[in-house]
Design brief:
Structural class: mainly beta
Distance between the termini: 48 Å
Number of helices: 5
Helix content: under 10%
Radius of gyration: 21 Å
CATH topology of the largest domain: Immunoglobulin-like
CATH architecture of the largest domain: Sandwich
Largest sheet: 6 strands, mixed
Bound molecules: copper (II) ion
Shape: globular
Strand order of the largest sheet: 10-9-12-17-14-15
Number of strands: 32
């Protein structure tokens, strides 16, 4: 199990003060012409400066892609150029957009072949922290670095002295510091927790240091970009305010003793007030089952503070114009039973319209099923009309947590273990624990075929994918 334990040594070089990664101002990026994201090979300093670089795949050759930043209501216009030896496409995670722009290879578009290109063009209706990533063979393409953060600025952002991306990923590296490509497709990963890495980066580097002055407020846009790892983060001494989840504003709450848990694909916007004395620092800590690792440091510089006391409770951000309200009494409902995986006791499932035994399924790389069907079915989970409220009753009947992601919509949790839930935040990805029954609801907005799948990418590839048709 050495591969799945996090290496400690990367985090012992606390002295190396790497630059934080501020997001560029919108004016620097919002050019009217189409910008290009070129999916290609590149190299990245995943091991930190002074160490050999790691060969990766990235948009414009950058591991974790360029940060994209727009204003609410802007049009995104990006040409994907494929410089890889295999097909690819880009999904815009959390963005409400027309279905043909959703970027799901095999459902909303054919994969863009090597040497080909495809133009994505759509409006950005909602402000918040989103991301974009490959949606073809994503279990390999994302593990190699094909993803990036997409920020849509609010008209009135919260008061903060710095607005920072905080993209957490775990990479599985071999002992030469290169991406372990031998283990792509390894069935033990697919049947268990998914591909877990052994090397953690924040914004593509190990242990970055974010610098501020005493009483500064930092906005951290945290994204879990890992294939499969659930990150639990602690901010000792920092008392952050959580102000948004999956891009959607919430009533600010203090993370004083609690930790922040993010499943793959989930985001949280937090505000951190630096209260330490000059030249002190506070860690951002990742808690693993048998280990705690400082993945970033927030350092108080020697400069005089720009204000005498920290800022108070933040104002609630303006809500996005999400389609609503939900009409639960006349919602169209579908059950979704999640089965399979190691120790799951699944006997077999439907594949391509045929009933297969478990051994036969595994020989074709399928180890999970939704409602007894492994892999993307020909028929949707449910067909609904635009404007209808849809409820999905998820029953996680196996031994593993799953990060369920709905494309093109945000939903609310409206039930847990069969009991109604009165209020819950809008999300696009929900972490469902083993044995948990969770009902989610949303209003079908755009017509088309919307994928609903586990964002643990090996589970998705291993069978956990279905779709919802909006007519
Ligand atoms: Cu899963």
């Amino acid at each position: 199990m050495t591969n799945t334990s996090i290496h400690r040594r990367s985090f012992l070089r606390a002295g190396c003060a790497l630059a934080a990664m501020p997001l560029l101002p919108a004016s620097a990026l919002a050019a009217p012409a189409a910008r290009e994201l070129h999916a290609r090979e590149g190299s990245a300093a995943l091991l930190g400066p002074g160490n050999p670089e790691t060969a990766i795949w990235g948009y414009n050759g950058i591991a974790g892609g360029p940060f994209l930043r727009y204003r609410q209501g802007d049009e995104l216009r990006i040409s994907l150029r494929n410089g890889l030896g295999q097909g690819t496409s880009i999904h815009w995670h959390g963005i409400r957009l027309p279905n043909p722009m959703d970027g799901v290879s095999g459902l909303t578009q054919p994969p863009v072949p090597g040497g080909g290109s495809f133009e994505y063009r759509f409006k950005l209706p909602d402000a918040g922290t989103y991301w974009y990533h490959s949606h073809n063979r994503s279990w390999e393409q994302m593990a190699r670095g094909l993803y990036g953060m997409l920020v849509v600025e609010e008209a009135e952002p919260p008061q903060a002295d710095q607005d920072l991306a905080f993209v957490v990923d775990d990479w599985r590296l071999d002992n030469r510091g290169q991406i372990d490509s031998q283990s792509f497709g390894a069935m033990p990963d697919w049947a268990h927790a998914g591909r877990l890495g052994n090397w953690v980066t924040v914004n593509g580097i190990p242990g970055p240091v974010f610098k501020g002055r005493r009483n500064d407020r930092l906005r951290l846009r945290i994204l879990n970009a890992a294939n499969a790892r659930i990150f639990t983060l602690a901010f000792p001494g920092l008392n952050p305010w959580v102000i948004a989840l999956d891009g959607q504003p919430i009533e600010a709450w203090r993370l004083s003793r609690a930790n922040l848990t993010l499943g793959p694909g989930q985001r949280a916007d937090i505000l951190v007030d630096i209260t330490g004395d000059s030249d002190t620092s506070a860690p951002v800590r990742a808690l693993f089952p048998r280990q705690t690792v400082d993945i970033a440091t927030i350092k108080v510089g020697p400069d005089a503070p720009r204000r005498r006391t920290p800022l108070g409770r933040p104002k609630r951000l303006a809500d996005n114009p999400l389609p609503g309200p939900l009409s639960l009494t006349d919602a169209v409902a579908a059950p979704l039973r999640m089965e399979g995986g190691a120790m799951g006791g699944m006997m077999g499932g439907m594949m391509g319209g045929r009933m297969l035994g478990m051994r036969e399924m595994m020989s074709q790389g399928k180890v999970w099923a939704f409602n007894g069907v492994a892999g993307l079915p020909d028929k949707p989970l449910i067909t609904v009309r635009q404007g209808q409220t849809v409820r999905i009753d998820i029953d996680n009947a196996n031994r593993w947590p799953h990060a369920m992601h709905l494309h093109g919509h945000h939903f609310r949790v409206v039930g847990r273990q069969g009991r109604p839930v009165a209020s819950s935040p809008w999300r696009d990805t929900e972490l469902v624990q083993p044995g948990e029954r969770v009902s989610i609801a949303f209003r079908a907005s755009e017509p088309g075929k919307w994928l609903f799948h586990c964002h643990m990418l090996e589970h998705q590839a291993g069978g956990m994918a279905t779709w919802i048709e909006v007519t």
